[in-house]
UniProtKB/TrEMBL annotation:
InterPro entries named among the record's database cross-references: DNA_Rep/Repair_Clamp_Loader, P-loop_NTPase
Protein's GO biological process: DNA-templated DNA replication
Protein name stated in the entry: DNA polymerase III subunit delta
Highest rank taxon of the organism: Bacteria
Length: 386
């Protein structure tokens, strides 16, 4: 099986990476020491980065079975993946990674370092990486992932080769869910559509009835807001939903990590953690808290993305556009919302949602940003009624 088999909708990018992975020595066929993969959330940036890393480590453009198994298990000695646990990638993390980048490969042709969410590097962290990209160690390849080139310093962008991903089609994502994950065809198509081709979110919706129910509750709550009081209560409920979603994502993983950590430290189930080992467990718990904070912020942002799809559907109905709706299952409610406001007001609501995303990104309290957004929608409907 090729390392590219489970990727979808990115044939042009795969061709670039296959050619580079099959090139030797570095410099042939576009191979270089630093890459940047850009694309919208859910386009498969991290999956493509790991596939490329696997091909490089294999010395085979399609990947070699043993290497594929090691990468999937996270045990390859020449691969280091920086996955963001917190809101930012700290300078200490980057310094540790840079130190590793100077080690010679153990068994593979290259040492490969993948930085997921490279846009979350602070400016100080970015400057540490920049110095390394200016004077790269031999046989080390950096693969950065970010939504867009604009999310990184211009000096970093000038030292990497950028490969841009496109948004996969709903049909591509649905086909992947059916083929790879055994999801029912109709459910796969619905979840791919509601996730707006976000591969990870589509899989989550397809495999969790609770996730689908939380999404529907969010949309119905927004459509049901009629007053400022409703807006305040609706914002609080949306925050609760985002919190429930974040807990569902992190709880099982946190428990597995703790169990694995205790086992590796020689602590039997039910046994008290010795004082000498408590600092290590505390460090793990701190990492998990940072991940929970990020997961909550991501959940809130996902709610706002879903609300954008909702009012986008309303606007399409208002202007009579012959375009497929995202939230087909809510068609009666969408028709009612379309009659209750003007297209101009729906656009204003979409602007309020975009502004809420910017405010939250700027560290405004999420509940305040959500309240303001919903109040804007209420005022708009009142204005249109007048």
């Amino acid at each position: 099986m090729s390392v590219w088999t489970e990727l979808t909708g990115q044939d042009a990018a795969i061709d670039v990476f296959r050619a580079a992975a099959g090139a030797a020595p570095a410099g042939d066929d576009g191979m270089t020491h630093a890459w940047l993969i850009t694309g919208p959330p859910g386009s498969g940036r991290s999956n493509l980065a790991l596939a490329f890393a696997t091909a490089l480590l294999s010395g085979d453009a399609d990947g070699e079975p043993t290497t594929i198994a090691q990468v999937e298990a996270g045990s390859h000695p020449d691969l280091h993946v920086v996955s963001t646990q917190g809101v930012i990638i700290s300078i200490d993390t980057l310094r540790t990674v840079v130190e590793r980048s100077h080690y010679s490969p153990s068994v593979a042709p290259y040492r490969v370092i993948v930085i997921e969410d490279a846009d979350r590097m602070s400016e100080r962290s970015s400057n540490v990486l920049l110095k390394e990209l200016e004077e790269p160690p031999p046989r080390t390849v950096w693969i950065l992932c970010a939504p867009s080139e604009a999310d990184l310093l211009p000096t970093i962008r000038s030292r990497v080769r950028t490969v841009r991903l496109r948004v996969p089609s709903v049909a591509d994502v649905a086909e992947l869910l059916v083929r790879r994950d055994g999801v029912d065809q109709a459910l796969a198509e619905r979840c791919a559509r509601e996730a707006q081709s976000h591969i990870g979110m589509a899989l989550r919706l397809a495999t969790s009835e609770d996730a689908r129910a939380r999404r529907e509750e969010t949309l119905r709550a927004a459509l049901g807001v009629r007053s400022t009081r409703d807006a305040v209560l609706g914002a609080a409920r949306m925050l609760e939903i985002a919190g429930d979603d974040a807990k569902a994502i992190t709880a099982e993983r946190d428990a597995e990590e703790r169990e694995h950590a205790l086992r590796s430290l020689g602590v039997a189930p039910g046994q008290a953690v010795p004082a000498a080992l408590r600092s290590q467990i505390k460090a793990l718990e701190d990492d998990q808290k940072r991940r929970a904070t990020r997961s909550l912020r991501d959940g809130i942002d996902r709610i706002l993305v879903d609300l954008s799809s909702l009012y986008r559907d309303v606007l399409l109905l208002q202007v009579g556009a012959e375009v497929d709706l995202v939230n087909v299952e809510l068609r009666p409610e969408l028709d009612a919302a379309a009659r209750a406001a003007t297209p101009a007001q729906t656009l204003a609501t979409l602007d309020a949602i975009a502004e809420a995303r910017e405010r939250i990104d700027g560290n405004v309290a999420p509940v305040l940003a959500l309240e303001s957004m919903l109040v804007s929608a209420v005022r708009g409907r009142a204005g249109s009624a007048r």
